[in-house]
Amino acid sequence: MAETVFDKIVAGEIPCHKVYEDEKVLAFLDVNPLSEGHTLVIPKVHAETLDEVPEDYAAALGAALPKIARAILKVTGAKAYNVLQNNGAGAHQAVMYVHFHIIPKYPDGAGLGIVWQPRPLSGGEVLAREIAAAIDA
Fold first, then answer.
1. Is the model's pLDDT at 117 over the cut of 90?
2. Distance from C-alpha of 95 to C-alpha of 60, rounded to nearest angstrom
3. Whole-angstrom distance, CA of residue 85 vs CA of residue 135
4. How many distinct structural domains can be found in the chain?
5. Contacts 24+ apart (CB under 8 A), 24-28
6. In sequence order, which residues have a C-beta less than 8 Å from that of residue 21 and are 6 or more positions away?
7. Which CATH number characterizes residue 92's domain?
8. Which terminus of the chain is more exposed, N or C, with fewer CB under 10 A?
9. This prediction's pTM
């Protein structure tokens, strides 16, 4: 795996505006934010996509995300936010190191813009059964 800017931040080679850190998680302000308070949350282990994150780091991310989101809302006064996490270049991932964006949304429109294009579910029963069987297989 190629070294990324997030590897360098975790190693202390590049400074960041840290908002949270524990043994397995680091969170810091995005240097190119979509809105005030836009924060990145990363595991302190290199994994390119979420499916590659070790379970103990995933659990730590899951515990940290709500704490960080509450703090962002409290400090910024935002009432809404998005949590965004992309996996792979085809899904718009720009830095190949798993990371979550917590992006406050404001009444003036600042924040993440999303165009949702839902499609009817097809073959749901079979697909659900196949996915369930593949978990921990």
1. no
2. 21
3. 20
4. 1
5. 24/56, 24/57, 24/60, 24/61, 25/57, 25/60, 25/61, 25/64, 27/64, 27/68
6. 27
7. 3.30.428.10
8. C
9. 0.93
Query: DSSP string spanning 9-33?
Result: HHTTSS---EEEE-SSEEEEE-SS-
User: Do 21 and 9 form a contact (C-beta atoms < 8 A)?
Assistant: no
The per-residue pLDDT for range 27-81, each reduced to its tens digit, is 999 999 999 999 999 999 999 999 999 999 999 999 999 999 999 999 999 999 9
Domain that holds residue 74: 5-134
- What phi and psi, each to the nearest 5 degrees, are found at residue 87? -130, 105
Contacts of 42 (CB under 8 A, 6+ apart): 6, 9, 10, 25, 26, 27, 97, 98, 99, 100
Which residues are CB-contacts of 89 (< 8 A; sequence separation ≥ 6)? 96
Q: Which residues are catalytic?
A: 99
Quick one: tokens of 1?
């795996």
Q: Which of 91, 85, 4 lies closest to 39, judged by CA?
A: 85
